[in-house]
Queue: 2 jobs
Job 1
Amino acid sequence: MWKYATQRIIYMLLTLLVITGMCFILIRMLPLQPLPAEDPHAAIVEMQREAAGYNKPYLVQFGIFLKNVFTKFDWGVSDKLYIGRSVGAIFFEKLPATMIVNLYSIIISIPIGIAFGVFAALKKNTWVDHFLSTVTMIAISVPSFVYAFIIQYVFYYKLSILPALMNSGTDYFTWDMFKSMLPAILSLSFGEIAGFTRTTRAELTEVLTSEFMLLARTKGLTRAQATVRHAFKNCMVVVVPSIFGSFIGIMSGSLIIEKIFSVPGVGMLYLNSINAPDYPMFTMLTVFYTTIGLAAGIVVDISYSFIDPRIRVGSKK
Amino acid sequence: MKNEYENIPQELFEFAQLDAELHDKKIETKARGYFEDALIRFKKNKSSVVAAWIILLLVLFAIFSPLFSPYTMKDKDTVYQNFPPFVPSVAAKNTGHLDGAKTLSSQNELMYDKWQAIAAETGMNPVIRVLGTEEVSSIYRGKERITTYYKLEMNSYYAIGIRTQTFSFEEFEEIQQFQNETGIQVIYPWVEPKDIKDISDDPAIWYQVKDNKGTPKKDKNDNWIPAYSSNSEIEGAPYHSQRIEGDPGTWIYSVQKSGSVRCRFNYYNYYIFKNGHEPSYLFGTNNMGQDLFMAIGVGARFSLIFAVLVSAVNLTIGMIYGSIQGYYGGMIDMVMDRIADIVGGIPFIVAVTLFQYHLASKVGPIVTFAFAFFMTGWIGMAALTRKQFYRFKGQEYVLAARTLGASDKRLMFKHIFPNSLGTIITSCALVIPGVISSETTLTYLGIVNLSDLAGTSIGTLMSQGQAVATTAPHAMVFPSIFISLLLISFNLFGNGLRDAFNPSMRGLED
């Protein structure tokens, strides 16, 4: 199991390195952004570019980039959006907003989603189940900007109980801030809840029909006991990894939701760096998003093998 | 000894069973094929059948709405922008639908008078109904003063009323021609600012005023008193068309303005002059003054065609890639799997952006966008096909075919591949909404701008609508409904197909 995990992580790091290299070179091949002449920071950026080896071959540049990242965690300086400032520092300024909004969202979503899923599975093929399944289907299909619009229109414009946009500032744990984050959190939650409902329901219905459930009933457990002790536990084998996946995903945020509700987070930064364009920022965020994507996949896979004793991929024992 | 078996003459063979009687009964029931079976199961799934019909309707909408609409993408009105749905014939019935209604609150009496003045001058009453009045008392210079505020439901199209604009002599002449032919009054008599207490910024005022705020001065019978100018010295161009009611024949209809003519005109009627018909927008207009009914159709056409093309290419690439992987296995499989891992690890948005940066100027944004989809879209399909191949390649019939000397290609595509056809059809129905969804998201975010070539896209329309979501919600509502219906139906349809082609999966997933 440990061997499997290490093997997967090594593979992931290699994949990450290759992707980073490809993207890095593709970005460096683009013509440089002209610097505003009168800006005093222009000189700093110019020096930084020199140090990053902008006139050297691409592979050498990549080497310098990797060396800076690994030894000093230096991702270069922004040359358009926040001219002259360190990309890494800006990134860490933006990360908390994204993480908090997403964290709230999954904290709301997980219990609700699992509860709906369990409920639907227990009432399988009744109108409750059909209703929940249809709503889930709709919730998954509808794009998040439609939710955002509905929430903004209803709660801000019609009822005016929630603000339209998130407050700026960094005092994330005040009631006011929470209230201003609520539209974004709600918009994110619909899809999450639907996702958890679907996974839980699918898994639990399958487990409930399996033979060990029959055995459990035969040996005298009540339906509730059998469901909680055997079925629910088994269904968690699939649900828990997807929870882990979601927790990794909270860092990446949603570009759309952050744009609509002006959440000062990573997604917004990414969007701005694409439109600016700010290549050093874009490079770092590309690496970040790639890492998150790969890591989420790996965490899900590895947690399967930790949770479920039947899945011990690659273990020699 | 060996050689004796190499060439056995044909005559030596004889039929073992030629006249032996076969005791098997002939099968009497009709054989039911795989697809027939799937179709029967699909039909049982009511929601999927409904979804299929909805998809058909939406596709028909996309095909026909731009044909039926009197507008094209080039018809951009500079005034009727973000205007609510309005169809004159329906609005006339006063049912409260399609009447271009917009609610304005906190309208004071001055404003209310202005709306009434527009109604009196043009004959088009912008106030549909008064939703409520509110009296607010305030202390002004020691005296209590009561101000009445109205909440009005307005016809946004009529509320534009009279505007002033500078025309060339030719156009002024054309408008007069148009007036003579149709009897529709476009040009209204000129009002000199000095006659109305020097108010120069409000073309709607045509009546005598008491003060420079525009409070009307009415006669004993509570009628408006016109303030039209009859100073023929400043007249801009000869006017020989119909005059408005009550004109003694001396009112002037235009003034000079450095080589051209400035006049007051009724925008609604001017619109008829320009377009040949009354403004009629079933879904309202977007922020560029385009007809949303038509624009959604144009955007949907693009989305659907693009999604089908992209899915077709991706499925083909994925199938071939997966087949090779699954069939050969071993080292080839591993190397190809690594490649797929690397390509699949690149976040889609990064791929799109990098392609846009590098290629958009060379091959255009649409092709670039499609490339980004081709790069990552095939991986799911490849994995599916690979799995199917692993399942079937070891089976006896494949070994038998191989023993009979079938080539690799024949084994792959004739013997193994048809088994995964059901999976492929299913995933096709689920890939299309995925592509539509990504395309809408990216155009919504403005990372990809397809407006130049495709006209518009649903995502672009929605981002335009989002900007005015609170003041003109219709601009967001209609594209939202369209895209939501499309995605929901495609997903329901795809799930129905999946269940139909996968008897073992029935009832396990929604």
Job 2
Amino acid sequence: MAVKVIKPGLSTTVQDLGRPGYYNIGIPLSGGMDRLALKAANLLVGNKEGAAVLEAVFMGPELQFTEDATVAVTGAELPPRVNGEARETWTSFKVKKGQTLSFDFLKKGARAYIAISGGIDVPVVLGSRSTYTLGALGGFKGRKLEAGDKLPVGKGRAAREGRTIPEKLRRGIGTPAELRMLPGLYWHRITAEAGRHFFADTWKVAPEADRIGYRFRGGKPLEFVPREQPFGAGSDPSNIVDACYPYGSIQVPGGTEPIVLHRDAVSGGGYFMVGTVIASDMDLIGQLQPHTPARFVEVTMAQALKARKDQAKLYDKIKSSL
Amino acid sequence: MKTRYSYGGDEHIFVECDEEMSLEAFFKSLSMATAIKKAKIKGVTEICPANASMQVKFDPDVIKPADMLKEIKAIEKAAAKAKPVIKSRIIEIPVYYNDPWTHETLMRFRERHQDPTSTDIEYTARINNLDGVDGFIKAHSGAPWFVSMVGFVAGLPFLYQMVDRKRQIQSPKYLRPRTDTPKLTVGHGGCFGAIYSVRGAGGYQMFGITPVPIYDPSQKIKHLRDFMCLFRPGDIVKWKPIGREEYDATVAAVDKGKFNLKMKDVTFDLNEFKKDMDGYNAKLMGALNGR
């Protein structure tokens, strides 16, 4: 079976749970930015949790189906329509052969996950079907979808329609969005006062926010502890000898605008980092629209691990609700 | 050298082998990465050596962060005893310095540069007291460079010039990063050289371009059939200055599948290298040329 792309949307890519093991040569994990929503969409249509789905940013695509299938849309509130008729998000529905799946305007969040029973069946590259557009790797021809593309869909038992995930199990975004982070890495490069206002200030998501990283703007610039720059680091006080960048690490070039690296992260570089957003809050970042107010909240390792447990529990509840 | 450990959130441990760059710090990072790989610790998903630091990504549901840290610290002690000797490859990379494509790009972003009135090579030559463009090319291509990290984007090598620190070329990054860099640009920032494996944003000075692909996700290019990225940490690069004619001929040969990458297996011994850098480099280049 196949799905024909009538309109591609703004930036729609094939994603699964990613491609671990190649970060040491600069090939990032990739995969859905909101992993919980991706897994939920798959479970709704009867796929394995890590099947390949479509990740649509801000705007949905228009897709025509060549066979019957079960579909679910999770993550951002991007209301689906089948041949013009409204369908619920977070709920499985049927799309029949010849019918068209389209979307209304985005109401909430940033990234919708469109799972199709059988999963998107693009070739597996280095263990994953995820698209890494910067490296033209994986997904559908290594790029975002274009009009006229024919997406292969795998064979699989389609779940019935009307399966739904209760609203209380769909994770919301607070205002301002709170991003829990563990200070560390090169935190010692900034003054105690800069550290205080980094957490106290309210930042805003900048328009430069994509799968590589999310930039934030609006807080006070960070002051550096004076030092003679080490050999090889470069002359700016925010420079370090080019090092690895953890996923979720927060670099602040020039001390002005924090950038949180996400699933398509650049694997390393020469900017100091103040710490790392905990893994449990990475999904949340993927749902932030530009101009959303956000704060960084300091947590300990114990709190980060507790957050992991809470998120695992939430996923267990989603599974048992189906 | 003072090793510093930090958690990178709940899934990474970051190890800074030294604040400043040196081949000693690189060897420590590489030997720790190799030892961690050998130890096959359950829960480890990524091991990334870098210039003077390294990073491990792990699943804290499989191994507690504190236990992971303990394991790595124990390995550091053992790795410190490892001899700084590695199996390496010396690879010849032709460079068309002062080429029209990086020139067009650097002119487009001139207002973001420290010196809008000269080119990146002219500027870097001047601040390094080299005799103009020709003096720069001679210094840049005279000695080999060590791949001390692969990353930023897929397959991009960071290169460390194998000469005395006082002879190493240094140059700042652009004041504001460019939004465009031609694919296969040979660039430089701080003390590091680089080859941009894909087209995209960048802040390094641009000196030239190579006709030799270093990343091919389709794995069709002859020397990238086995794996899509050419470089790995520990490789040694020798630049070969070429002109337009050889550049065009090489591009055509690559397209036709007739280009043969010049590459030889060598052993690199840091202690021997430090005793006589120029002599050691001459031997490496001799190996490349079959002498």
